[in-house]
Request: fold
Amino acid sequence: MDFETVSPENFGKSLRGIGLNLIVRNVLKQCDFLAAVFDMKAHRVSADFAIVTYGDQVFQLHSDGTYHSNPLLGLLPENPPRGAGVEIRLYDTDPEDAVQRAIATGAVILQEPTDKPHGLREAYILCENGYAWVPSTQL
Reply:
């Protein structure tokens, strides 16, 4: 699928399984963060929306304004962190590399790369929207 030209209707019809949609204050800034730290690709980027790919995984970013009639909007806190309790795990991203890149963007490092008993080396990076991004590799 060409994410740059697919119609909203056809994109919506193509979605299967479980989906991830992050509501963010600034779509453009979030896309820049995801590209700089995790080499993610953003498509159809506008002030209101982006399709983001991580390998063959697809998720979406929406700005607050696009949620004007959505029931979730009233639950979003005015002050960060927004994504408390959500871990977005990136199993194919080197945690050392991601932490160094995240530091360069000014992101908060909640946990430096650490070997965990569940067989992964992982770090916790908090973006400005309060989502915890967890780059991980197998031990």
